């Protein structure tokens, strides 16, 4: 380097000023190397893999895209394969091994299927903005059946729950339209064709944008759609799928808390109050 690094003394060596600078530089290089090594280790440890999931059309068009987008942003080396099915037909591709996990409503107890998470989601009334029945709190079902109703098609699991909801009323309910497509029902409500009954997760993004309004049904007529995340009973999940399952369950729990805060899912004490009010 053109300058002495050490100064010879009677009992050893001592660093010169140039030597001190060299030592300082070497220490900095070693620190940077350790940082680089740590970052490379992090890259190696970052989870990679494929997640195959089946869900309902309503969930795929509702809250799921935002959840998946955030997950992919945080885990760019994970590939997700998403397919849509309707109702309990989400079980078949999980059983066959075509997909790893399923997410759907009203999933029956099925041999060979294990539950990864459950959420109890009530159905309620979906209205267009500005409708006369829009006000805070649960809605009286007797008022709803006086309106033009757009309902899920007979034979669907949602319609079965709607029928149970309406069964305690002493009136014959005749919808003006029936469809097996929840997206169609939502669009018709937006167009002012009538009201429909769905669960608040199906319309959470529409309500956030102010395009629809959701009101829970007052007791004692309220009925629920159980939401289940599930997998094959004897098929262990790989690391990427396990990571996504943990992420998805946390996100769904957050959505339920949001809906409870908005009053779209009634807490037990609120259910008792609404029950007493409408008796």
Automatic annotation (TrEMBL):
Domain HTH lysR-type: 1-16
CDD domains recorded: PBP2_LTTR_like_5
PROSITE patterns (alphabetical): HTH_LYSR
Organism per entry: Rhizobium rhizogenes (strain K84 / ATCC BAA-868)
UniProt keyword 4Fe-4S, yes or no: no
GO molecular function per UniProt: DNA binding; DNA-binding transcription factor activity
Similarity annotation: Belongs to the LysR transcriptional regulatory family.
Keywords noted in UniProt: DNA-binding, Transcription, Transcription regulation
Domain of life where this protein originates: Bacteria
Gene3D superfamilies given in the database record: 3.40.190.290, Winged helix-like DNA-binding domain superfamily/Winged helix DNA-binding domain
Name of the featured protein: Transcriptional regulator protein
Coiled coil residues, start to end: none
A GO-annotated cellular component: cytosol
